[in-house]
Amino acid sequence: MTYIGVMGFTKGLEVEEILRTEKFDNGKKLMAGTVLNQDILEGKTPLDRNKYPLKIEDIPNDIFISDERVVNFIKFEDEIFSFKQLDQIRKLGGDNLKGLILSFWPNPGELKAFKESFPEVKIFLEIHRRRVEDYLELCRQLWSFKDSVDGVILESCYPHCSDFDRLYINDCIEYLSTQFREDQIGVNGIKKMTETEKTKPLLQKHPSLGIVMEDSLRTKERHLDLNKVRKYTSFFLNS
Question: Fewest Cβ atoms nearer than 10 Å: which of 13, 56, 172, 176?
Fold first, then answer.
């Protein structure tokens, strides 16, 4: 599955608008992501309120539309402690949920039990930026998830750095390719639309690589900016 990921949809109309204006007819799918954290699960008002759906019942009833061009994912930003927590997140996605993106790695045993119960739910782990020389150890850690994880998403730069590091990503893919197919690996962390050009050599070398964007697609008020989403999806659909 080659995908172009947009994290932060809070309305089904936003997804439908992107599908109306952009042609996902070349084998690539729109990974439509909505973002949740523990405050949302507990019914609290989260910080950075505009990043998240106004009502969690909107996720299955509105945001996650049924369309063959779309794969619906929930990105969960906080720590996962239990099977019960994973199942709670799964239920929020409803029938059109394709998978979960986990920012923090859960206990391998809890995740294995969840995957055995719900094998249809794809699990992607985020890999936060680290030194390339640490990747050998990372691959050892990932081996403990080998029966539970369907893909990984690499952060391409450090949190407070805006530079997309193509050489770093190339090195990471070399390590990860021992455990994952190319279409199971995605890249996040393109902080500025002007950085998209830097991904061209990477995508020429790895044409099935997934691309995910989030923070660079928001307004100052932290709403999703559909004009930016259109530019971004159009660029990668034609790359």
Answer: 13
